[in-house]
Structures are given as C-alpha cells and as structure tokens.
Design goal:
The chain is mainly alpha-helical. The protein contains 19 helices and four strands.
C-alpha cells in the first residue's frame, strides 16, 4: 500500500516539469521530465478518476510535458508525423481500442458444478468492457505515445540526440548510488521511501546476492536501463575532446561494472557486445545493426504465430551450455504457446484488459500462464491490429533510417544517431523476452523518426520561415531554438 509520500510525488511532478521548462532548454526539459518521472516516481501508485485512465508514473509526466508545451510555452506543437505510414500507425494505435472494447463486452465467468447439487456456482468473474470504457482507453493510448510525438518534433536535432545520451549516462550514474546500496543490503529503497515493495522479493535474489530494483517495476528494467546508459556513455566518449575523453571512458567502465552487478544475463550480454561496437564501429554500422534488430523484433512474433520457430531445438541447444537457462527459456516458450492459443480465439482485436487474455482455470479463475514478452501482451490484449500499430510504430524509425543509410552511403550522419538507434533497437529485441517498454523507449523512437524527417526536408509541410525562426519559450535558454531546426 503506497504511503502519502508516493501520492505527493505524483502530485508535485507536474510542477517539477514546469520548473525544468522554465530553467532549461526545451530539449533537456523534455528528456528529464520523462526520464526523471520514470526513475523517481513510485511504481503501482496511481490516481483512479472516473472515465479517464489511471494517473501514474507514466501518464502524469507525459500529460505534464504535453500541457506545458501547449499552454505554457510559445512553441507551436505539431504532434502528427510527416510520413503517411507513421500517421496511419499512430491512428491505429490510438483508435484500435474501439473495436477491442466493442468486441469484449461480455463478462468471463468461472463456474463450478457441485457434485451434491447440480447447480452451477459462480466462483469468479472478469468484467466485460462497456462503451463508456472507450474514452478511457483512447485517452490512455494517446497519452502513451506523447513522448514519441513530442520527441519527433523537439529532439530530432544534434542537441536533442545528445541530450538523450547524456541523460541516460547521468541518470544511470546517479541511480548507481541507491542501486549499490540495495545490492549490499537487499532491495529496500521503495519500501523506505514509498512504503511498499513493488514486485516479488524472490526475483531480486540472484547468484547468492541481490539485484537492485530501486523505483522501477523489476530488476530486469533497471539492468536494461544501465545497459543503454553504458552504450550512451560509449557514444559520448567517441565525440568527447581528446583531452577529456579518458574521463568519459572511465564512466563507461564504471557503468559496465554497475551492469555486471545488476545480474541480468540478457542485459549483460547486450552490453558486452554493443558497448565495444559503439566505441569502434562507424555510425552507419550501428544504424544497420539497429535496423536488423528492429526487423527481428517485428518478424519474430509473426513467425511464432505461424509455428515456424523451432523452439524445442533452441531449448536443446541452450541446455548444452546452461541447463538452468534452458529450463527458464522452455518455460517461456510453453507460456507463449498457451497464450497464443488463447489469443487465437480473438486474433483481430484481442481480449482487452482486466487480464482477459490470460489462460485461467475454467472453474476457479486461477491464472495458469504469465506473459513475459511485451509482444505477447499486446497481441493478447489488442490482437493483430494493436500489435502491428505498436511494434510497427516503434520499428518504423529504424527501418526508415536504415533504408536512408543504404541509399545514401556517402552522406554524413550525426555522430549520435547510431547509438540512439542502437538503444532503441536493443530495447525492441529485449521486448521479445520482457515487457520493458517504457516512456523513454517512445521518446527515443520519436527522436529517431524526427531525425529521419530532417533528412528529407521536402517532405516537411511546415512553412520554411517557421523552421528558420522557431519560437522561443519565455523562460528557456537560447539553445531551445535548435529544437525546430
């Protein structure tokens, strides 16, 4: 049960965002409003208001950023992307909720027949969706992609891309202090500050010790965040002045040590492979690798639905190296198989919320399967329509960027875009295993899409004078001008 401090933090965060916009450049204010909320606000705590989605650590920062940009700055906010495909995917993501709600109006009942009396007794039930739920779901979907839409406009420049990488590095360095404390004494920060523990304590115990969680949903989320921060530090080390480069390299090494202490095998593997790659490889190679990650992330669920992924052979191969890891992987595959069978009953629009997409005992309603990957959660809840919209919108910026890189081999690219693209690409890959989609993932995807749009200025429909002379927020710094260039 969250304590009053948890709800107070949610209430004051809009004012924190306003202070950021009044004292920092628009790029930095956007990045830290979203990332700061993700890192500091309490998980699970929320305000449940009628007819609107729950106000929590995701929706409050997103809504605050949008409201401040629209009502408290001089910027002209253009939310819709320039490309037709991106516009269609945005519309699908928001409005796919309508058919999903309308096709899930019936409740799911769990009944048992007593031996002594031929009467069905209602044991449990999952409520059906009503027409009035449409508005709440639509608003929730729209708020989810606010970081994507805002970043597309304001973080597509060199300044914006650098702010993303710098925030990742600085945020992880600061987060290492409570994290190492939790590694030493066990995960307690959320209990000490907000009065409750946000997950299963057993899952924080690993390799004879603890892996940190702090204020995030799970230790896996924190490990992936540290991995992307180490990647960001590596990118910043490449462009740092020669005399200052060794300092940033030391931070890269520190973040890699932090990553190892997080004890997440997947994130450690990502970091070991990608951090040296970012330090040594040309930016174009990073872009192409990120594009490959995006294509794999989008196509794997489709192939899994068709049953062409040799899951048994994969598990057998892993078992030769690590039997424990093979057992965990086999459990994931078994869960996916059952959840896919459940999703196949409503493949187009899914089962909606309230846990209706989960496999349950037919008599007592007990949950029999636990979804891990983000893709299976989206596919079960919103069907093919929701899956194509969400994963398509996240992968589209990388596909467009990769296509541009192949077509214009001699053109210069930003020294930051390769690392930003790779952080998005590896997050998409991790979403096949875990539900690690965060507001910062959407922010990164929007920045990449905006960068691609800048590479094709003829497609931008805004007046040229607006691009040359963007509005400046009253309290911001002159660097805010770069957001519209």
């Amino acid at each position: 049960m969250p304590n009053p401090i948890a709800y107070l933090m949610l209430l004051i965060w809009p004012f924190v965002c306003l202070v950021l916009f009044r004292t920092q450049s628009v790029e930095r204010a956007i990045v830290w409003s979203i990332l700061g909320g993700y890192l500091l606000l309490p998980p699970l705590a929320e305000f449940n208001l009628p007819l609107v989605p729950a106000m929590d650590k995701v929706s409050i920062p997103n809504l605050s950023v949008l409201a401040i940009l629209v009502f408290a700055t001089a910027h002209k906010v253009r939310l819709l992307p320039e490309g037709r495909i991106a516009k269609v995917l945005v519309a699908l993501l928001v409005f796919s909720a309508i058919p999903t709600v309308l096709t899930n109006r019936e409740p799911i009942l769990f009944e048992v027949l007593r031996d002594a009396d031929p009467i069905l007794f209602l044991v449990d039930a999952l409520p059906g969706q009503s027409v009035r739920d449409i508005g709440s779901v639509l608003i929730g979907q729209a708020l989810t992609i606010v970081p994507f839409l805002v970043a597309r406009q304001f973080l597509r420049t060199e300044t914006g891309l650098r702010e993303i990488l710098l925030a990742l590095m600085v945020g992880a360095i600061a987060y290492s202090v409570p994290s190492f404390l939790e590694i030493r004494v066990s995960p307690q920060m959320n209990i000490w500050v907000y009065g409750f523990f946000q997950h299963s304590f057993e899952q924080t115990m690993r390799a004879g010790g603890y892996r940190p969680i702090v204020f995030l949903p799970h230790g896996l989320w924190l490990a992936l965040f540290v991995c992307t921060a180490a990647m960001a530090a590596a990118a910043l080390a490449r462009v740092a002045p020669r005399l200052e480069r060794w300092k940033v390299v030391l931070w890269v090494l520190y973040l890699m040590i932090f990553l190892m202490a997080c004890k997440s095998a997947a994130s450690i593997a990502y970091g070991v492979l990608l951090v040296p790659f970012i330090l040594l490889a040309p930016p174009r190679w990073m872009i192409l690798l990120a594009t490959v990650f995006a294509l794999v992330a989008v196509t794997y669920p489709m192939l899994r639905n068709l049953g062409v992924i040799p899951t048994d052979a994969i598990v057998a191969t892993v078992a030769e190296v690590n039997p424990d890891r093979a057992q965990s992987l086999g459990y994931r595959f078994d869960n996916e198989t059952q959840l896919l069978a459940r999703a196949a009953e409503k493949p187009a629009f899914g089962w909606s919320g309230w846990g209706r997409s989960l496999v349950r005992d037919s008599e007592n309603g007990q949950i029999l399967t636990i979804p891990d990957g983000r893709w299976i959660i989206v596919f079960g809840s919103f069907g093919w329509l929701g899956y194509i919209a969400e994963f398509g919108l996240l992968a589209l910026p990388l596909v467009l960027l990769g296509w541009h890189t192949l077509r214009h081999r001699e053109a210069e690219v930003s020294p930051y875009i390769g690392a930003v693209a790779l952080t998005l690409g590896i997050t998409l890959m991790d979403m096949l295993l875990n539900a690690t989609l965060t507001p910062f993932t959407w922010l990164t995807a929007g920045a990449v899409l905006g960068y691609v749009e800048r590479l094709h200025p003829r497609r931008i429909r805004a007046p040229r004078h607006a691009l040359r002379n963007p509005p400046v927020m009253g309290g911001g710094t002159p660097r805010a001008k770069s957001a519209q260039m």
